[in-house]
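quick one, 379 residues, struct below
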Amino acid sequence: MKFSVDRDVFADAVAWAARSLPVRPSVPVLAGLLVEAGEDGLVLSSFDYETSARATLTAQVSDDGKALVSGRLLADICRSLPNKPIEVVLDGARMSLTCGAARFSLQTMPVEDYPSLPHMPAATGTVDSEQFAHAVAQAVTAAGRDDMLPVLTGVRIEIDGDSISLLATDRFRLAQRELTWHPHTADESIAALVPAKVLGDTAKSLTAGSEVTIALSHGGAGEGIIGFEGRVAGGVRRTTTRLLDGEFPKVRSLFPAEHLTTALVDKAALVESVKRVALVAERNTAVQLAFADGVLTLDAGSGDEAQASESIEATITGPELTTGFNPQFLLDGLTAIDEAVVELAFTQASKPVVIRGAAGEDDGDTGFRYLLMPRRLLS
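---
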């Protein structure tokens, strides 16, 4: 194997493919990055039996071949190289990399022991890459992080015609994001439960191109695979991951059909106020929110401990109401909203709040809703 390649293109592709390498691989070869040179250019691959990454890029290939080397080491080396062309040569059990006056020699691992990457399912449709990345970032805000409840560590993707719904919950909050896309089949209807971390990292990493292709297999629960593909200046990048097994809770019904009290609040003012008041909140205690007479009053702390209180303007419709929330969960939802003004909608104090951006008259539905369970207030 022998090839030469642009330093920036190679370094970027290596970093992208190596980002999903396991920290503690079950077998040593899974820490490797597979480098394949052929007539189609250069292909860099990583795989941990769950998630695969494959970057295809243009290179001047003199001799075909493949080598398996430490992915993290190669990524570290590429980051440190001078801005000059890279030449890579496989010589026996070692792969040498030359860039200007710098030369590295890496020990290879047995290629024959490396598992075959899963095939990309047939393409289901395409979506704007920036819009998709932003929607995913909003949805994963509410995804669970407890591996003891694996179903809740995923984002449920529901495809219905030209609409995609993203749903995530950790039992204490729920995020829902709607967006449109371009399905290959007009009446497409399919759902999948995708690991939230993989989905978030992948969507963010594919924004260099204008659109992302989503490829979803129609296998049974837990047996399916979802793939994402995007084009970048240096070539094509493709990720696949296994779907999570289990039944995602039916959460749509948690959003109430009507509200008795609503409040419109400047988002920036509310975020800063929550941050300040929460400084005196004890661990696992709520920040109290009282809505009355055009004012939202925030309180935290009690008894002989430190206390804080702050009031900000709010446009309130409906009965007065006092409730409380985990301050970090409240901030997570607020910061995920794009609009400058947020709407907080309640049925009653003991029920969840629904937070969304307050759309202008011509803006329509912003597509993101964040439902947050209240916390018991200290007496």
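The first helix runs from residue 7 to 18.
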